[in-house]
Amino acid sequence: MTAIVPDQPSLHELHSRPFASLREEYDYRVEDIEGALPAALTGTLFRIGPGKFEVGDTVLKTMFDADGMVSRFILDGKSVHFTNRYVRTEQYLGGDTMSRRGITTNAPSLRGNLRWPANTANTNIVSMCGELLALWEGGRPHRIDPESLDTLGTKHFDGDRLGYLGAFSAHPKWDPRTGEVYNFGLDLFPTPRLRCYRIDPSGRCTQINSLGLWDMVWNHDFALTERHMVFVLDPLRPNIRTLLRTRSLERALEYQVRNGSTRFALVPRDGSAPRVIEHDPIFHIHVTNAYEDGTDTVVEFIRFEDPQVFIQLGERIEAPGDSADPRAHLTIDEWPRGHLVRYRITKSGRITETVLSDGAPMEFPQYDWRRSTSEHSITYAAAASSDLGHYNSVVRIDHRTGTRSEFDFGLAQTGEPLFVPRSADAAEDDGWLLVVNHDLVTHRSALVIFDARRLADGPLCTAHLKHHLPIGFHGTFRRQIAQPAPV
C-alpha cells in the first residue's frame, strides 16, 4: 500500500501567505518563547498594517486598501502579552459593504467610486502629545486607547487646519530637544500642495507653510532638521488619462524620468519662504534622518536603482488575477536594489551624494530616534537576501566603519526593525532591535529581539505567536507598560 504524502505548498503559495487575512482578534500571554527575554526591556510595542484583504465579496487589490489592524506586544521583563485589534474605521464598521473606493480598488457602486478613498488607518501608529494615533496619509488620524485598543474616533486638533481632506501624513517627525512634532498633509485638489504643520507639546497644531507642488507629485515622507522640514520630491506623478480610465491614483502613478526631476525642498520651521533645488531624477520611498552641518543640509534615505518594478507591480494590479488565488497579483517577484545614501545640499544650491552601502534590496530604514535632527552613525533596515520573494532579513549599517552586518530569517517576511535604547542616556546603538517576522513555512509570526550591536549573532529571544500576522508597515515603542483589562 502506497502512503499518500500531502501536497506541499508551492513557493508562490508560501509567498502569498503574508497577504492572508487575520479576521480573529486575540488577547493572550505568549507561551512559546525561545531564549531569554531581556529583563531591562520593558514597555509596549505597537505595530500596524493591513489585516483583512476583503470587504464582503470584494477582494482588495493591494495592502493600501485593507483594514488597519493594531498588534500590541506588552513586555514586562518576564513575559510577553499579545493583543490585536482592528481600527474601527468607517470601512471596517460597514461590514460586507464597500461604500467608498480604495486607493487601488474600485467600489461595487458608482456612488462609492465617486467618493474620496476610504481612510483605512493602516499605515503607522504613533505616540504623540499623550495620545496613540493610527495614521493614514489621506485623512485624519484615528485615536486609539493604548490599554483597551478601542478606537476613540478621529483626531481633531485644537485650532485644526488640516485642510478639507484632513490629510495628515503617516510619518510625523519629532524634535527631541523641543518636544515639537512636525508633519504635513498632501492636498491634490483643487491646488496640489503640501500643508506643513507644527504641533507643540500641548497638542496645538499650527500650519507653518504651504508648498505648491506644481505638477501633482506624490510624496510619502520627509525628514526634520533643527531648521527645516526636508522633502525629496521625485517625479512620481499620476497619468491623467490612466486616472480617468481606472479612477485609481495608485495605478495612475508613473515615474516620469524623461520630463521630470527630483526637487529637494527645504521648508523653514520658522515659516519663512521655502527653498527648492532641482536635481536629476532619483527614486525613493522612506527618508531616514536629516541634520544641519554648518550652512549645509544633509538628508539620508534609500535610493532605488530602478523604479520600474513599482510600475510593473501597478500593471499586475490592473491585470486580472489568478482565479484560483485572488491574491496572486499582490506578490512582488523582484525587489528593487537600493543604496543607502546621504545627500548634501549647500547654501549655494549644489547637491552631492555619498553612498553608504552596497546595492541590495532593502527598505524601511530606521535609526535611534533620539538622534533625530542630528547626525546618526547607525542605520537599520529590512532587506531581502535574494531578489525574489519578500524582505526576509535585517541589516545594520555602521557609517563610521562602513561595515554591514545582517541576520537572514530564510523563507520569511520580515518587517521594519525598531531600535529601543537600553536606557534614556544609553549610547547610540546600545539597546535592542525589535522585529516582527513571519515564518512562511510554519505560517506563524513572532516577535524577535536582537542585541542591536550584535545583530549577526542572532536573536536573544523569539516569542512565537499562535498564528500569523499579515504583512505590516510601521510601529512605535512606548516605555509605559500597557495595562489591559483582565480577560
TrEMBL record:
Pfam families for this protein: RPE65
Free-text cofactor note: Binds 1 Fe(2+) ion per subunit.
Keywords: Dioxygenase, Iron, Metal-binding, Oxidoreductase
Enzyme Commission identifier(s): 1.13.11.-
Cofactor(s), names only, from the UniProt record: Fe(2+)
Xref: InterPro entries: Carotenoid_Oase
Family listed: Belongs to the carotenoid oxygenase family.
Record-given protein name: Dioxygenase
Protein source organism: [Mycobacterium] wendilense
